[in-house]
């Protein structure tokens, strides 16, 4: 499960289900680039954490 969550894509989509547009920019893999760079994965996770904080989720 950690592999599925490691790029942050599922996390960002999850929080957007709770609050639409909580994360406005999600980096997703494509057929041309099937694996995200570490920087894009990190940004997705950071966006998820920031959105969670704005929603009042305790750390």
TrEMBL record:
Residues covered by the Calponin-homology (CH) domain: 1-59
Q: Which Pfam families match?
A: CH (PF00307)
Q: Which residues form a coiled coil?
A: none
Output the InterPro entries linked to this UniProt entry.
Answer: CH_dom (IPR001715), CH_dom_sf (IPR036872)
Source species, domain of life: Eukaryota
Full protein name: Calponin-homology (CH) domain-containing protein
Q: Which organism is it from?
A: Rotaria magnacalcarata
């Amino acid at each position: 499960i950690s592999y599925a969550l490691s790029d942050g894509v599922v996390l960002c989509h999850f929080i957007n289900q709770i609050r639409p547009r909580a994360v406005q920019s999600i980096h997703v893999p494509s057929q041309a680039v099937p694996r995200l760079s570490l920087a894009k994965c990190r940004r997705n996770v950071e966006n998820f954490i920031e959105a969670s904080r704005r929603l009042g989720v305790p750390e």
